[in-house]
Every structure is written in C-alpha cells, then in structure tokens.
C-alpha cells in the first residue's frame, strides 16, 4: 500500500487495480477487506482527483464499492438532497394549489358560479400570473372583466 502512495501518477491507476485484485484474493474476511479497500479508494481519490466515478467503479467490483465509506457517504448525500428537493417541490406545488383555490373562491364570491372553461384556464396560469389575477380581480365587476384579463 505504501508503494501506491509513492507511485508516480501515471502508474498509480495500474498499481491500484493490481492492489485491489490482491486484496480480493488474500482477504476473505469482509470487514478486513472492506477496511483495506476503503484505504485504497481514499489513496486513489487523493492521488488522482480527476478520476471520475465510472473509472473508480471499473476498478472495484460493485459489492466492494458499495461497502466503502466514500460510496456510503455519497449515497447518503444523494438521498438527503433528493429528500430536500422533494420537500421543496411538494411545498411549491401545495402553495400553487392553495393560491389557485383561493382565487377561484374569490371569483366565485365576487362574480358567481365559474364556468368550467374559465376554471381550467385559471388552473393553467403560472404563479406570477396568479398573483396578478389576485390583484386584478379586486377591480372586476363582471365576467367580461375576467375574460378581458385572461385574453
């Protein structure tokens, strides 16, 4: 392993692959093998920062890679990012739905029952248009005002 650390950059990749094969053959015990593979992976990541994920995957078997700390941390980060983005997207959709519902109720109170085609047009408006409609509807006196605004 020390050889991998002091090896010149062009030879590091080949040396790393060879070392991984040796570890797989010599260490059947999962925990010991996992620790050594994580150490090799860490050395390779620091020595070859331009190495991409695909190149690392080629060197490690999928089961070896899944056991490494770097893989586990990347997986956790990806899952957390997915949860954050999902919550944000859900919040935005909820706010948009509430905004549409409020505007439709206000129009119903102000102008009476809303025709289905008008309701569908309103549901297709983007958030900025909905904000503008919320302000404009305060000045509507009849359906014609809404028709003009929508067109």
TrEMBL record:
InterPro entries (alphabetical): DUF2887, DUF4351
Domain DUF4351: 92-150
Region described as Disordered: spans on this chain: 73-97
Pfam families linked to this entry: DUF2887, DUF4351
The organism's place on the tree of life at top rank: Bacteria
Bias kind Basic and acidic residues: ranges: 80-97
Protein name: DUF4351 domain-containing protein
Source species: Microcystis wesenbergii Mw_MB_S_20031200_S109D
């Amino acid at each position: 392993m020390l050889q991998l650390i002091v090896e010149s950059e062009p030879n590091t990749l080949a040396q790393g692959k060879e070392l991984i094969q040796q570890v797989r053959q010599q260490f059947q015990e999962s925990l010991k093998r996992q620790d050594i593979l994580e150490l090799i992976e860490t050395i390779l990541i620091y020595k070859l920062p331009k190495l991409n994920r695909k190149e690392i995957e080629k060197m490690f078997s999928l089961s070896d890679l899944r056991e490494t700390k770097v893989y586990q941390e990347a997986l956790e980060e990806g899952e957390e990012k997915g949860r954050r983005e999902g919550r944000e997207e859900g919040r935005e959709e909820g706010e948009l739905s509430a905004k549409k519902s409020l505007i439709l109720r206000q129009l119903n109170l102000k102008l009476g029952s809303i025709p289905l085609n008008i309701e569908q047009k309103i549901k297709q408006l983007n958030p900025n248009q909905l904000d503008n409609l919320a302000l404009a509807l305060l000045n509507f006196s009849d359906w014609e005002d809404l028709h003009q605004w929508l067109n």
